Amino acid sequence: MTSPTSNSDLYVYCNGRTSSSSSPKDPQTAMASSGRPSAVATNRNMNWLIHGLYTRKDYALCRKLIDRQLTINYDKEYLYYTKGLILRDEDHPTEAINCFQLAIIANKKSSENYKELAKTLFSMGRFKQSLEVFLKAETLLERPDHDVYHHIGELFYRNFGQPKAGVPEAKEYLKQAIMCGKHVASYKILAEIYIEEGDNVKAIEMIENCLQ
Fold first, then answer.
1. Are residues 122 and 154 in the same domain?
2. Chain segment 69-96, per-residue pLDDT in tens
3. Which of 40, 64, 132, 165 is the right S-S partner for 161, CB 3.0 to 4.6 Å?
4. Are residues 115 and 154 in the same domain?
5. Is 59 within a domain?
6. Does residue 186 lie within any of the structural domains?
7. Residue-wise over 7-31: b if at least 16 C-beta within 10 A, else e?
8. Residue 200 falls within a domain, yes or no?
9. Taking the mean position of all CA atoms in its chain, how far away is CA 60?
10. Which domain holds residue 169?
11. DSSP state of 140
12. Who's near 67: CB < 8 A, 6+ residues apart?
């Protein structure tokens, strides 16, 4: 007759020591016990290095490191996102779109992924698609974002939101945009709207805000 399972049978023996198999270690604990960085910690450090290379515009080395990490890194969202930014800066918008779409697949809840995809579509003149993606990004915002509000306002003003939205909606989004800080482009479009509406006082106020 088989004896009842003892508590010791619930553990895995390694090098003469027991360790519970029911609760995996967090990355810091794993690093401390193994004497080497965990995969999570290594990926985080690599992301910081990639960020530093990108901000210094060392695109060649940054892309090389990203491509290397994509072959070994299980968390690919940031890699695709940054590669998309580089490709757009290097005037490869189609490839950039592909990267942002892959970043979205990796994390559908990030407004940043949708925003950068929308900005790329905007730069290509694909305005209706851009507006759709900006509106999606807006639904995911955790805090006010000038880029999102400004572009939605501009696209509504340029009638790409018709028949659902137009100048009144554009004005509201642009007002939200300038509440995020001083942004000349938003003030300029608001000034144009007020001139068209015959409100020269408000138009002058917007222009003065641009010049301050």
1. no
2. 999 877 899 999 999 999 999 999 999 9
3. 165
4. no
5. yes
6. yes
7. eeeeeeeeeeeeeeeeeeeeeeebb
8. yes
9. 21
10. 143-211
11. H
12. 83
The span from the CA of 139 to the CA of 151, in Å, is: 14
Q: How far is CA 174 from the centre of its chain?
A: 21
122 in the same domain as 148: no
The predicted model scores a pTM of: 0.78
My answer on whether 122 and 52 are in the same domain is: yes
Structure confidence by residue, pLDDT tens digits, 21-41: 343 333 333 334 334 445 556
Tokens of 102: 């892959």
Residue 50 sits in the same domain as residue 119: yes
Helix (H, G, I), strand (E, B) or coil at 205: helix
Neighbours of 44 (CB within 10 A): 15
In which residue are the tokens 């000349």 written?
184
How far apart CA 30 and CA 73 sit, in angstroms, is: 18
Number of independent structural domains in the chain? 2
Alpha helices (H) in 7-165, listed in sequence order: 27-34, 39-55, 59-70, 77-89, 93-106, 111-123, 127-140, 146-157
Looking from the CA of 7 toward its CB, the CA atoms found within 13 Å total 3
Tell the residue number behind the tokens 């790409």, with chain if given: 160
Residues 120 and 154 in one domain: no
* Residue 21 included in any domain: no
Contacts of 129-138 with C-beta under 8 Å, sequence gap 24+, read 130/155, 130/160, 131/155, 131/156, 131/160, 131/161, 137/111, 137/112, 138/111
Q: What is the CATH number of the domain that holds 175?
A: 1.25.40.10
